[in-house]
Amino acid sequence: ELTVLGKAQEFFQICDLEGKGFVTRQDMQRLHPELPLSLEELEKVFVTLDADGNGSLTPKEFITGFSRFLLEQIALKNDMMQQSEGEAACPLVCEETMGDDEDEEFQFSNLMDRLGAKKVLDDESDVKQLWLQLRKDEPHLLSGFEEFLVRIFSQLQEADNEKNELECALKKKIAAYDEEIQHLYEEMEQQMKKEKEQFLLKDTERFQSYSQELERKLLSKEQELEQLLQKQKRLEHQCTELLSGKEETKVENTKLKLTNQELLRDLERTSHELSQAQQQLQVLQEESSRLHEEKEMEVYRVTETLQREKSGLLKQLDFLR
């Protein structure tokens, strides 16, 4: 065990050439020339040792887990050698060893631990029954069946990792959409407040009518924003359902992507209509300025006319005197 522990420490140093203090999946591949294991098997070993699933192994996790893995491999190799010697020397003894329930239970449990089956299987009874049947009736097919299990559990683990990554990305997108919608809602509230204050300064029926029309449009935008919030809630609900199921993950992700695209289109359309409302507001302001200038000109003309009439009346009064 001390030799295996020292070997595990040596393997950790080989993986962590940069001195980071931890080992990743890519670092684990550096053991391929050192061990009679394929890259897929090294990936499986990494997944087994990464109990917390954070994608990295501390020195303690690596050395402890890898030492256990090496001891299991040594024990498995010794068992295979003993079985091979037993078969050559005495077939009856081999049959008795193969039929030992405790030995079968230990080997099957060891196999399931190395494959990481507990992370992806709720019930191992079917696999165990088939493994025991092959071990008893067709032992020459047992190694092929175990290799098949290695590939299957590796693919299941990859699918589970991909699902977790998609769930994490989806949560980030939902948070980003929430922030964007909240920002848009606050901007619209500020714009509404500003436009209402500007329209309160107008005292003509025409501008009051335009103000009411614009308020109706803004109310419509608020309703559209409320609909977007409802869609967002439905999206969160779909995300919750997505987390509870494994088989429909890809289909649900596709639906959610389509829903996100629809939300983006709705947001763009709402932004465009808000821009149009701002342009109308600018037109109203220009119209107000023009009417104000016309009123001032009219007052000036009326004043000038009254001044001329006053001068004429004064001349007539002088003439009459």
UniProtKB/TrEMBL annotation:
<dbReference type="GO" id="GO:0005509">
    <property type="term" value="F:calcium ion binding"/>
</dbReference>
<dbReference type="InterPro" id="IPR018247">
    <property type="entry name" value="EF_Hand_1_Ca_BS"/>
</dbReference>
<feature type="coiled-coil region">
    <location>
        <begin position="149"/>
        <end position="294"/>
    </location>
</feature>
<dbReference type="Pfam" id="PF13499">
    <property type="entry name" value="EF-hand_7"/>
</dbReference>
<dbReference type="InterPro" id="IPR002048">
    <property type="entry name" value="EF_hand_dom"/>
</dbReference>
<feature type="domain" description="EF-hand">
    <location>
        <begin position="37"/>
        <end position="72"/>
    </location>
</feature>
<keyword id="KW-0106">Calcium</keyword>
<protein>
    <submittedName>
        <fullName>EFC4B protein</fullName>
    </submittedName>
</protein>
<dbReference type="InterPro" id="IPR011992">
    <property type="entry name" value="EF-hand-dom_pair"/>
</dbReference>
<keyword id="KW-0175">Coiled coil</keyword>
<keyword id="KW-0479">Metal-binding</keyword>
